[in-house]
Every structure is written in C-alpha cells, then in structure tokens.
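Q: Could you predict the 3D structure of DUF3570 domain-containing protein?
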Amino acid sequence: MHTDFPPTPAGPSEAGPSQAAPQLGNAILAAALLLPGLGAVNAVHAEEAPERATLSVKYLSYEESQSSMDRIRVRAPSVALTTPVAGVWSVAASLTADDVSGASPRYHTAVSGASRMSDDRGAGDVAVTRYFPRGSVTVGAAYSTEHDYKSRALSLQGTMSSEDKNTSWSFGVGGSDDAIDPVNLVVAGESRQTVNLMAGVTQVMGPRDLAQLTLTHSRGHGYYSDPYKAFDNRPRQRNQSTLLARWNHHHEDGGGTSRLSYRYYSDNFGIRAHTLGAEYVQPLAQGWRVTPSVRLYTQRAASFYYDPVYDGRLGEPFPPGYVFGTTAFSSADQRLSGFGAVTLGLKVAKQLNRDWSVDLKLEAYQQRGSWRAFGGGSPGLEPLRARGIQLGVTRQW
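A: Sure. Here are the predicted structure tokens for DUF3570 domain-containing protein:
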C-alpha cells in the first residue's frame, strides 16, 4: 500500500523559482520542518529507520514566459542522500545548484520593461534523526547563498505515535536568519529573521486510508521589500499561518493511490490563499509507475498591492495618487497580486531492478488575474506561463 505523503509547496505564491527566490530561506526551513528525511513525509512510519541507503540525482529545467517575452530560465542539478546509521539513526543531506538567467521585471511583469539578469544559487541541507520504538527526533540545518542573498536555518522536530501506531503526532520548531545585500545598493547589510512552529497529526483511517492535518505558523521581522522594484515598501514584520489537510486512499481493485490535499494560507500582508491538489499514483507492469496531477491555486492580493496603471500627473509606474516622500506601504510585485493558477503534471517512473530506478516529471503552469476565485483578480496582469522538466536517477544499497 503506497500511502506516503508527497511534498507540498510551502509558500503563498504559485509562481516558479524566479518568483520564489526572496522566500528561499523560508522555503528551505518549511521543508526541514517536514522531516524526517528530505522529501516525502511518511509520518506514520517515522519511528522506523530506513533499511537501505538512497542516493538520488535530479536535473530540473524550468522556463517561464509572458506575452511574447521569454522571462526566466533555470537549470538546477541536485543530489540527495539518505543513509541509515547503526540501526537507530539516519542521516539525510541534499545539495542544489541553480543557474538562473533571463529577463527580470523592474516593476511589474505586465507593463514594464525588463533588464537582463544572471545568477547562481547554491543550497544545501542536512538532517540527523534518532529513532525510538514510538517516536523520533530530527535535527536539521540548511544554508543557501547567491550573490545578494544568504540564508541560514535550523530546525528541530519530534514525532510520537500511539501504542497501536495508528496515530502519529509531530511537533517542530525552526529559525532562519537571512542577509540581503542588493547589487544596486538601495539598501546594504539588511537582514530578516523568522521563527517557525509546526504541529500535526496523522491518522490511519483504515486499511486503505491515511489522513493528515498540519498547522504551521511563522513570525518574521526585518527587510521584506524588493530592492529591485521601484516604490516597493513593505512592512518589516510578516506573520504567516498555514493549515494543510491531506488524504490518501489506496484503490484495491486497480492498485493505485489517490492523494488529495487542501491548504489555506493567510498573513498580515492581507494575502489569503487556497490550494487544491490531486494526484493519482498508478503502478503498471514491469516496474512502471505513472502519476498524473493537478493543482489549483487562488490568492487575494496584499492590502498594499497596486496595479501600476498610468497616472495623469506622473505616469507609469507610479502608484495612483502617489505623493513624493510618502512612506506608505506599496508594491507592484506580481507575487502579491490577486490571481489564480493551474498546474498540470505527469510523472513517469521505472524500477529497473532492486537497486536502480529512473523518473521523469513534466509540469505546465499558467497564472492569470482573471482566474482568482472568491473575488476579482488584479486586472494589470498578463498571463504568466511556465513549464518544467525534471529527470531523476535513484540508487539504493
């Protein structure tokens, strides 16, 4: 029965790597809080150390575009290793290198010009887990760096199961410290600190059903503005809360497993977001496995977001009614707008033998302001499209 939970995006925006870069430190920390291991969450069996070591090498190619303009291209190789130690310990580590290039929007991707950009990002994390008969304790650390942004994170998570092991509780705490030094010298030596808390419960509902509920809350303070966008001035405190519900059901007749998820996100910027996810894992003959997926996302714009329309006095991209010298919060960042998004995916995996497997994952993403549910979206947005291809090879021993 294949019922382990897959990773779920941690941030409020459905945008791709180029849109998520300023949140990299928080994303790494959120992933660390879903340990043990770097990857899928298997909370019910978190008390059991892995029997074999696993080495995975993956390569991601990602591209996004808007109208007739190609925007961002990302090439990202990564390697992850998980190994048991002395029967009651495990060590998990991963390294990722991103080569990012393309057109970076100055103000707003729909109406502004764009400058050429190129950047290299590196990220790594490590986690050590100690297993007990009815629980586990995991300590994790993560680090990421690029030419103008560095992030360091630490996390601690514990799990505890009921005597029959049908119920598992998890608790976690983490902290990150980010350093921001933009090359345009708008600011220098800025920083951001965040504390994350997590609590969750996983329940075996029967021989074919597994349910999980997870609540996370983070409190951060420091520099949240985007130094590369004009008139971008955001609060220096951001509190974020996420409620995630997941349900896996094994279909005995066909041998497949359906995975459903719902996530609600809110923060003090005024963003409210909903995510619905569904995928179906279908094993086939001769070691093949096919997993189609769909994810629907919608978010309300931040309270200080504006569409940079032409102002009769000042012209684009000034906020409507802008007064020189004002310190009011404002941003035309697309990630803070109101929009909806759809992601379609397909993963094909092949178990070559007992030790080797390969997989290929394809994803197509589209974002539009008019797709926002529960209200109108931001009218200044043009459709944003993205596609990703990831190839992976895994070896166990």
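Q: Anything worth pointing out?
A: Helices lie at 17-20, 24-32.
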